[in-house]
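Human: I'm a chemist; would you kindly supply sequence and C-alpha cells for a protein?

Assistant:
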Amino acid sequence: DATVAANTPPDENKPESYVVQKGDSLYSISRRIYENEDMVEQICQLNGITNVNLIYEGQTLKLP
C-alpha cells in the first residue's frame, strides 16, 4: 500500500547528512552508514559529485 509507505517514518538509524573525516572515502562512508558500497552512486548524485575520489575533510554530504 503506497500510503503506508509514504507515512512510514525514515529509518532513525540512518543520518540525513555526514561530515567527512580525515581518511574517509565515499566507499568507506557508504559501508559505515549502509553496511555496503551500493549507495556511493546515490551519494554522488545527491551532492553533485562527479569525481568519486574527490571529497574533502569537513565537507557535509547529504545522504539518501
